[in-house]
Amino acid sequence: xINNLPVKTLTHKDLTIEGYSRAAVQTYWRxxxxxxxxxxxxxxxxxxGTPTWFVSHTxxxxxxxxxxxxxxxxxxxxxxxxxxxxxxxVEPMERVLRRTSRKQRSMALVxxxxxxxxxxxxxxxxxxxxxxxxxRTAEDSRSFHSCAQxx
Length: 151
Hints:
By secondary structure, the protein is an alpha/beta fold.
């Protein structure tokens, strides 16, 4: 496997958290046992098999590798990933992926699995929840970021 980006590892009980974060540069984490990842500020080759990703917000250091990840999976003949984005980011990211796919005709990017976090979710107390697997549910929680987010 190509070792192209730093990856730190933490194990807690039966779960492994892998990834790396450096503020304003790159953020990417995954839990391989659950087959989910969080943020795509970079895309280590070892993370290619992770099929489901949640993007926390639209700062470049959390999102910039999304087109590369989708293109690599397509090039490697892998199933399209499922990507959860903040609602305001869905349409702009679909535009980016469509434009990228026109320039890379041999790697037409699939955008049908990009979902806004609010889509298909049910109100659960003051949070939104979505089933990730038969055993797991993802919940969003409202938070405040000191910098304005722009999709």
